[in-house]
Design brief:
The protein is an alpha/beta fold. 49% of the residues lie in helices and 7% in strands. The chain has a five-stranded parallel beta sheet, sandwiched between helices. Strand 17 and strand 18 form a beta hairpin. Keywords: ATP-binding, Chaperone, Chloroplast, Nucleotide-binding, Plastid, Repeat. This is Clp R domain-containing protein.
């Protein structure tokens, strides 16, 4: 390879490689010469991060391999580039150029390993094929094309891309390399070093490709019938031959050294068992994720939290749970995620900037080992070598992992540091110790960690380093624990409380007291070690190994004597249920522990706890919590998150609200960076005017100074420019942010009523009335209940409302519930409908709240309670409640009064944000009799309201005969539905026809029904005893059935309109226009 001279300071070093001197460029040299500049520019920019775009190539000589500037000038001393591609031979660069061409012909925007394989095959001029395997570039290209066509069904598009990309090699490209291809180059460079080569040939690239292949090149070779091991051996044979030509001895086992000294081909655990989704997303191997932006946003919010930042995706099979993780990987790969996930928030300050960076526990142990080792050598100082020896000796694995990747041997480094120290000691005229290695930890110490260090966390040390959050409002509980610990015997407290009330915080508070010397002297010398049960059990694969660690089945019997005598002090922590099921069974063990009940803190104490933790979370999220936000977190979590306890749920609220604010700050920063004007134009004009005014003041002052005025020394102070808003300015978190997170958790709209929601609530009654005809009283009652709840005037300890809809069948009781669910609760699917005809037996009560222990389905929970736990803001419809078994009514008593139920597993399920609706046909006969005036109702139009009131009183009396008084007394409102009048049937028919038209629009056909047909349908479909359901059957017979026959006969095509009219005989018919042939209803008897 010769000189490539450019006009840029970045100049390629002139070097002729001995091994490649015999390899001359063939007839394609002119193409390679004209293409080299763009290819090397692409290679440098994509692989090395070096841009050659500013380098202008003046002229190339294509008659030889010498590229130089023309006309020649006096040569200057070139500065060599310590870059990877500087050592690539001409053959290697040609293979890379060929691979870029192949990638472009396939329509790819990156060079992947399979393209690199094609480039290597195309470059190899061996008559026997690639590395003597018989594989030619044409065969390999066909295989790659076939694999690509299998992944992309549109083969015509691929052919068009092939034809459009057959340009000459001289065409400039900018084809970057994928992550997998970069790894191949890294392996090739590393392998070249192991062979002590000063160049990188195509054979090095081939060995690297076969070694770190991601599977794409191997799939191509497998289809070609080539053996990758034989190809690797052939490449190694060629390289050994080149080394032998130089008079050097090839290494005995180059395969073992392919990754450098000390490295092996063994993959890490992550590489063995995991797939790097982020790398696949960066290479474009993941399909785009569409329509899941909210879910991905929610996952990012959880990942950005300070604690409990582990999302779990729940959903039915096939809904796209894996796609959420892939969408997150795409966001990270495209830099559309916060810097916390991009690992870009590390400090970039210089060393001169003052910092206050604490040291971790592991680092402090390194310092302690360095001090100890300095003492063993009788040194009066601590040098870097002492620290290095301490680091290599008590390393927790992090430093060793770095050195292993660098190919360094920790034992050799330790020996080198010891040699330096011995030399320093010898300079002082002292004799170094005979075996300093044996005394590195001082007398009697070894490198082996103690059991406590292996399986425990020192809470006292963490408290001394400030790594534990402050414990607030638990002074009494901490004092009680200290009292128990200071006892002579049975000095083992056990903390009992529900999950999330702060049991672990009590132990942490005790550790803080000991670290701050606020505990009695008896405890000041002690450490609190937290046992990691998961770490204790990890790796125990052989029988008896777990028992040898002290975690056998008889651990309780082993500990009882020590616990009783006070030799071993233990602070236990568990929930009340676990204590009852585990500890109380063993009376001998339970009496050795003194219980300390940890109750849920009050809302006032929870606010104090959040105020104490506020600074920690503000520093983590770079935000500021207002006092209103803290109050809202406690209030909203207490009211709307019923299955968890304070202060845990309130802390989680502010944590996720801070995460949400952090993401918003990231997006705002990104929008400002991509926006041409980060501020409105008026702000810029205002700043310009301020600068102009200041300039005029300065000019005026100078003029006064030149004139000798006394005011020359006085400048009028104008308003300064507003300071630029910093990118790191903390964002404020208010109560609205807390409410948004609480609403996302519970599904309950707890935010302030927006203008859109206010308009929805104001027009709710009108929307319901347009769908449910003739039931104005029921529509008004249900609308009032929803408005009371949303404004916040309802009883917070009861459901939104408990209503009973009574009336004959087919008048719209269930339809009104569906309409409410669709218009306010999101969709008709939001309704939880329970058909009480399925609950006529006594044992069906367990279907609602779950089967009792010992029965089938105990772990599955109840249909009613589980549905409300997942979606508390919903409509619960008990359809035809009179058919249910009387034991069902006993459950409803508690639900209506207290707003909660307890399921079979003891969990308390809140119904405080659910709307309870029951439908019943009780009283239908009374309504029918009242309509005909047979029981004394006056049904004149002027006294319609009076007759409705009398009919309602009669129905209520009949309900009293069927339902118990305690149930009726807990129902908020009993709504009596009227029977439908004949005049109202036309409105209902129009609604049905409108629904039919919407279904026909999907088929591309319109629908028009004449007025005589509508009157015929209303006349035949009206039955006061059955409501609107006979009308639906009539529409099916007169309209839908003839339409189906017409479609099957092929009378309609997309764009036509179906006309349903009466023919000359008075029978309904379907036609495309008034003069076309008709399709009549076959059942004429039903028309008569």
């Amino acid at each position: 390879m010769e000189v490539l001279s450019t006009s840029s300071p970045l100049t390629l070093h002139s070097r002729r490689l001995a091994s490649s001197s015999s390899n001359r460029i063939d007839s394609s040299s002119s193409h390679v010469a004209s293409f080299a500049a763009s290819s090397l520019s692409s290679f440098a920019s994509s692989y090395l991060g070096v841009s050659l775009s500013n380098c202008k190539i003046q002229r190339f000589s294509t008659t030889a391999t010498n590229f130089h500037r023309f006309p020649p000038k006096k040569r200057k001393k070139f500065t060599p580039i310590s870059a990877v591609f500087e050592r690539f031979t001409e053959r290697a660069i040609r293979a890379i150029i060929f691979s870029q061409k192949e990638a472009k012909s396939l329509g790819k925007d990156m060079v992947y390993p399979q393209h690199l394989l094609l480039g290597l095959i195309a470059e190899d001029r061996d008559p026997q094929g690639f590395l003597g395997s018989g594989v030619t570039v044409d065969k390999a290209r066909e295989v790659v094309w076939s694999i690509w066509d299998e992944a992309n069904s549109d083969s015509n598009l691929s052919k068009q891309q092939e034809e459009s990309s057959t340009s000459s090699y001289s065409k400039s490209t900018d084809m970057p390399f994928s992550i997998s291809t970069k790894r191949v180059f890294e392996a090739a460079v590393e392998y070249s070093r192991t062979l002590d080569c000063q160049y990188i040939a195509p054979e090095h690239i081939a060995v690297g490709l076969f070694t770190v292949d991601d599977g794409s090149a191997g799939r191509v070779l497998k289809r070609l019938g080539a053996n990758m091991n034989l190809l690797t051996a052939a490449a190694l044979t060629r390289l050994k031959g080149e080394i032998a030509k130089d008079g050097r001895e090839p290494p005995s086992s180059p395969n073992a050294r392919i990754f450098g000294p000390g490295r092996t081909k063994t993959k890490s655990v992550l590489e063995q068992f995991c797939v790097d989704l982020t790398a696949r997303a960066a290479e474009g191997l993941i399909d785009p994720v569409i329509g899941r932006e909210k879910e991905v946003e929610r996952v990012i919010q959880i990942l950005c939290r300070r604690t409990k930042n582990n999302p779990i995706l729940l959903g039915e099979a096939g809904v796209g749970k894996t796609a959420i993780a892939e969408g997150l990987a795409i966001s990270i790969a495209e830099a559309n995620a916060p810097g916390f996930l991009l690992q870009e928030e590390s400090s970039t300050s210089s060393y001169s900037k003052s910092t206050d960076m604490p040291f971790s526990i592991s680092t402090k142990r390194v310092f302690e080992a360095a001090v100890e080792y300095s003492r063993t050598l009788d040194c009066q100082y601590i040098a870097p070598e002492h620290i290095a020896v301490g680091l290599f000796t008590v390393d927790d694995g992090s430093a060793g992992r770095v050195l292993k990747r660098l190919g360094a041997n920790m034992n050799l480094l330790t020996a080198a540091a010891l040699t330096r120290l011995k030399g320093e000691i010898a300079k002082d005229g002292r004799e170094p110790p005979s075996s300093p290695n044996a005394r590195i930890f001082g007398p009697g110490r070894t490198k082996t960690k103690s059991v406590l260090e292996q399986f425990c966390v020192d809470l006292t040390a963490r408290a001394a380093e400030g790594l534990i959050d402050p414990v607030i409002g638990r002074e009494k509980e901490v004092e009680r624990v200290i009292q128990i610990l200071c006892r002579r015997t049975k000095n083992n407290p056990i903390l009992l409380g529900e999950a999330g009330v702060g049991k672990t915080a009590i132990a942490e508070g005790l550790a803080i007291s000991i670290a701050e010397a606020n505990a009695p002297g008896f405890l000041l010398g002690k450490r609190i070690m937290s046992l990691d049960i998961g770490l204790l059990m990890a790796g125990a694969k052989e029988r008896g190994e777990l028992e040898s660690r002290g975690s056998g089945l008889d651990i309780a019997n082993l500990l009882k004597p020590s616990l009783g005598r006070g030799e071993l002090q233990c602070i236990a922590s568990t929930t009340l249920d676990e204590f009852r099921s585990q500890f109380e069974k063993d009376k001998a063990l339970a009496r050795r522990f003194q219980p300390v009940l940890i109750d849920e803190p009050s809302e006032e104490d929870a606010v104090k706890i959040l105020l104490g933790l506020r600074e920690k979370y503000e520093a983590h999220h770079n935000c500021k919590y207002t006092m209103e936000a803290i109050d809202a977190a406690v209030y909203l979590s207490s009211r709307y998150i019923a299955d968890r306890f304070l202060p845990d749920k309130a802390i989680d609220l502010i944590d996720e609200a801070g995460s949400r604010a952090r993401i918003e700050a990231f997006r705002k920063k990104k929008d400002d960076a991509t926006c041409i004007l980060s501020k409105p134009p008026d702000d810029y004009w205002q700043e310009i005017r301020i600068v102009q005014a200041m300039h005029e003041v300065v000019l005026s002052s100078r003029q006064n100074q030149d004139d000798g005025s006394d005011e020359s020394g006085e400048l009028v102070e104008e308003s300064s420019l507003p300071p630029a808003a910093g990118n790191d300015e903390p964002i404020q978190v208010g109560p609205d942010d807390i409410a948004a997170v609480a609403s996302a958790w519970s599904g309950i709209p707890v935010q302030q009523i927006t203008a859109d929601e206010r308009m929805l609530l104001m027009g709710l009654e009108e929307k319901l009335r347009s769908r449910v005809v003739g039931q104005d009283e029921a529509v008004a009652a249900i609308s009032r209940a929803v408005k009371r709840s949303r404004v916040g005037l309802k009883d917070p300890d009861r459901p939104i409302a408990a209503m009973l809809f009574c009336g004959p069948t087919g008048v719209g009781k269930t339809e009104l519930t569906k309409a409410l669910s669709a218009n306010y609760f999101g969709s008709e699917e939001s309704i939880l409908r329970l058909d009480m005809s399925e609950y006529m037996e006594r044992h069906t009560v367990s279907k609602l709240i779950g089967s009792p222990p010992g029965y089938v389905g105990f772990e599955e929970g109840g249909m009613l309670t589980e549905a409300i736990r997942r979606r508390p803001f919903t409509v619960v419809l008990f359809d035809e409640i009179e058919k249910a078994h009387p034991d069902i009514f006993n459950i409803l008593l508690q639900l209506f009064e207290d707003g909660h139920l307890t399921d079979s597993q003891g969990r308390r399920v809140s119904f405080k944000n659910a709307l309870i609706i029951m439908t019943s046909n009780v009283g239908s006969s009374a309504i029918a009799k009242g309509r005909h005036g047979s029981i004394g109702f006056i049904l004149d139009d002027d006294e319609e309201e009076a007759s409705y009131a009398g009919m309602k009183a009669t129905v209520v009396e009949e309900l009293k005969n069927y339902f118990r008084p305690e149930l009726l007394n807990r129902i908020d409102e009993i709504v009596i539905f009227r029977q439908l009048e004949k005049a109202q049937m036309m409105e209902i028919l129009n609604l049905m026809l409108q629904d039919l038209k919407s279904r026909l629009v999907a088929l591309g056909v319109g629908l028009e029904v004449s007025e005589p047909v509508k009157e015929l349908i209303c006349r035949q479909g009206y039955d006061p005893s059955y409501g609107a359901r006979p009308l639906r059957r009539t529409v099916t017979e007169i309209v839908e059935d003839p339409l189906s026959e017409a479609f099957l006969a092929g009378n309609f095509k997309p764009g036509d309109t179906a006309f349903v009219v009466l023919d000359d005989t008075g029978n309904p018919s379907v036609r495309t226009n008034p003069d076309s042939s008709t399709v009549r209803v076959t059942d004429k008897k039903s028309i008569a």
